[in-house]
Amino acid sequence: MTKLIIFDKDGTLMKLGHPMVKLADDLINEFSIRTNIHVPKSEIKDAFGIVDDHVDKLIGAKTTKAIVSSLEKLPNGDAMASWLLKKIEHATSDNEAEDIEIIEGVQETLKYLHDKGYLLAIVSADDTTSMDLFIDKYGLREYFDKIITSDSSDYHKPQKELLQLIMDDLNIAKENTMMVGDTEMDIELGQNAKVRKIIGVLSGSGDTQDLRNANIVLNSVAEMIDKLGL
Known about the structure:
By secondary structure, the chain is an alpha/beta fold. The protein folds into two domains: 4-16 and 100-228, HAD superfamily/HAD-like (Rossmann fold, 3-Layer(aba) Sandwich); 19-92, no CATH class. The protein is 39% helix and 13% strand. The protein contains nine helices and eight strands. The strands form two sheets. A six-stranded parallel beta sheet has the order 5-4-1-6-7-8, with helices on both faces. Strand 6 (177-181), helix 8 (184-193) and strand 7 form a beta-alpha-beta unit. Helix 2 (41-48) runs antiparallel to helix 3. One of its GO terms (molecular function) is phosphoglycolate phosphatase activity.
C-alpha cells in the first residue's frame, strides 16, 4: 500500500516552458545518466542564460557559440557541448521569454493526495532558491513533508540515497513508496531505491521510450488519482 509519493519537479509538477529551458533540462538529465560527474543544475542553467527558471531577456539571446563556450568550462564540458550541438540544430531560441508555470491539474491533485493522508515529497536537481519560488508562488508548501534540492543534499540523481533519505526521515518503507517523474533519470532513481511503484509522466522531457521502465506511464500528474485509484 502506498503511503509516500515522491515527485520530481521540472516537467513533473512544473512546465518546462521556453525551449532553451527544456534543452538545459534535457542536457542535465543526459549528462547525469551517462557520467559519474555531478554538475549542479544551476551551473548548466547559467551557461544557457537561464535565471530562476526564466530566460533572462538580456542574456537569453546567447548564440549557440556562446552557450557551447560556457558549457566547455564545466567538468566534462566537451561532452556536454557536443551533445548540445546535436540537439540545438532542431531547436529555436527566438521565442519570447515566458515564466515556467505549474502543470494543469497538479495543484488540485496535490491537495487531494494530501487531504487523503498521503505523505508527499519532492526530489529535484534544482536549487533551493528556484524551488522556493515555485512552491511559494502556488502555495504548495503545506502539502509537502520533505523537499530535497541539489544544494540541500550531498547526493544527486539517480543515487538511491536521495530517496532513502526521504524514506528514513518520514519512517516509510520502500514497499510503501512511489516515485513520479518525467525523465529516464527519475525512473532509474526509483529503480535504484527499489520503491514499490514508479510512475512516468509525459508532461516534461521524457517520451515513452525514456519512460519504458516505469510501472505505468501517464500523460501527467493530473491523471494519477483516476488511473492509479488513489
